[in-house]
User: Which sequence fits this backbone?
């Protein structure tokens, strides 16, 4: 649009200049030269045949030109192959080199009309007309300054300025128009960027009020969201069904292993060892299925997490009891800097126990055998903080956010022999903590250890 505008402006400027020079100045000069030309012609007509043959000497021409009245600044001269023959006012106004240049330019140009120095205030227009009598006689050259040149230049400048202003206004107008045109696109983009698997039900974009051009694309997008919703639903259903269906036989298997281990006193050592491994694996599988089930319930908004006051000290003791039982080789040290008993938090006691178990389990899993794990509580006016600290491998800084995503493991962190990992534990901790209105975070240094912090709101504030 701006390029088109510039092109049109240039074309108009060109046309204007063409009209001003060739047509206006050309025709004015043609009319003005007629009077000196007629005078010279009349004088020639008055000569006798003999005089005409001998014509015309410098003096004759000077004589002819004597009767011509010229306004200020204008000049006329006769120039032939013999050079500059005679002039009126010309020599007084311009030096002879310049006059010769005028004559040459005018006689050589196509319509015998030339503009000299046309962009300056000294602009001069020159018109040349052939005189009868052959090349010797030459041409009558009429010279006049163009007084209107400065006005014309001022007008051109004004026009240029107005064009620049117009162009700038067009740019502003274009920017405003683009902002207006792109606004619906931006809002659609922002909505699309927020679409995730767990909010597909609110991802559909209503077509009402959207520009017509955008509607077919939005219709396709909405269809795609619906297909995704069905597929996500099927996937969740599948995970939920599988976890549920696997748990019952697994509980039975676990039960039988336990009863054999408890009752068969004279069991061969190797068999006992095998049964213990099977029991451990069944426990791990059970845990994984329970995690999957929790996640799938959370995805379907079916997970029941309480948000009520509870004594979190009791939950800490319960978590320590369970983990001490599961990891008898490790020392788990509890310390409480809050010095308040009971210490009331808002949330769900079972969920907090599960989160702490998970963090302590990880602390054991990613540290040296028999290392010490610390569970430390402190609080401020608004929140209670549960810090689980280990002296293990630590987590690279760039992985510290990633590990809270499902099925993600930190690169460079290795498992101890015999342990296994699903990449689900921390995503469940995050989901449970957020469901209770709390949060989870980690500070870690490779080779030094990690400290995971759970935060819950106090209930007594
Ligand atoms: P899992 O331990 O089953 O792999 P998690 O979700 O609990 O799954 O943990 C995700 C990843 O975070 C782990 O695979 C491990 O790489 C890293 N991680 C978690 N806790 C610790 C820890 N205490 N020390 C070092 N790395 C850890």
Assistant:
């Amino acid at each position: 649009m701006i390029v088109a505008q510039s092109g049109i402006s240039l074309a108009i400027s060109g046309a204007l200049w063409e009209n001003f020079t060739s047509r206006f100045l050309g025709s004015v000069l043609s009319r003005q030269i007629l009077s000196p030309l007629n005078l010279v012609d009349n004088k020639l007509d008055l000569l006798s045949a003999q005089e005409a043959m001998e014509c015309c000497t410098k003096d004759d021409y000077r004589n002819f030109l004597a009767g011509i009245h010229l306004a200020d600044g204008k000049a006329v001269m006769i120039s032939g192959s013999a050079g500059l023959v005679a002039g009126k006012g010309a020599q007084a106004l311009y030096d002879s080199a310049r006059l010769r240049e005028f004559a040459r330019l005018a006689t050589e140009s196509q319509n015998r009309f030339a503009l000299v120095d046309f962009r300056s205030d000294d602009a001069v227009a020159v018109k040349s007309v052939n005189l009868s009598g052959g090349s010797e006689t030459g041409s009558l050259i009429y010279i006049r300054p163009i007084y209107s040149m400065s006005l014309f230049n001022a007008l051109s400048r004004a026009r240029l300025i107005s064009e620049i202003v117009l162009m700038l206004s067009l740019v502003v107008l274009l920017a405003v128009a683009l902002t207006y045109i792109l606004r619906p696109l931006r809002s659609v983009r922002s909505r699309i960027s927020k679409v995730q698997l767990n909010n597909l039900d609110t991802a559909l974009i209503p077509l009402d009020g959207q520009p017509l051009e955008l509607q077919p694309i939005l219709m396709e997008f909405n269809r795609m969201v619906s297909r995704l919703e069905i597929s996500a639903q099927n996937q969740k259903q599948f995970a939920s069904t599988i976890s549920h269906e696997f748990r019952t036989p697994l509980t039975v298997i676990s039960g039988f292993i336990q009863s054999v281990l408890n009752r068969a006193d004279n069991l061969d050592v190797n068999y006992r060892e095998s049964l213990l491994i099977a029991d451990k694996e069944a426990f791990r599988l059970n845990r994984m299925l329970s995690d999957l089930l929790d996640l799938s319930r959370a995805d379907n908004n079916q997970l029941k997490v309480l948000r009520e006051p509870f004594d979190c000290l009791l939950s800490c003791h319960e978590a320590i009891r369970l983990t001490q039982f599961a990891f008898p080789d490790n020392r788990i040290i509890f310390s409480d800097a809050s010095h308040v008993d009971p210490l009331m938090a808002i949330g769900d006691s079972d969920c907090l126990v599960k989160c702490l178990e998970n963090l302590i389990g990880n602390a054991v899993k990613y540290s040296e055998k028999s290392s010490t794990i610390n569970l430390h509580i402190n609080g401020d006016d608004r929140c209670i903080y549960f810090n689980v600290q280990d002296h293990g491998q630590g987590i690279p800084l760039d992985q510290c956010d990633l590990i809270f995503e499902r099925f993600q493991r930190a690169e460079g962190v290795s498992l101890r022999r015999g342990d296994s990992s699903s990449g689900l534990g921390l995503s469940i901790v995050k989901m449970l903590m957020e469901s209770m209105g709390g949060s989870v975070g980690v500070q870690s240094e490779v080779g030094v250890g990690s400290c995971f912090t759970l935060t819950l709101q106090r209930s007594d504030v």
Observations:
- The chain has three domains: 33-148, 215-299, 308-457.
- The chain has twelve helices and twelve strands.
- The first helix runs from residue 2 to 45.
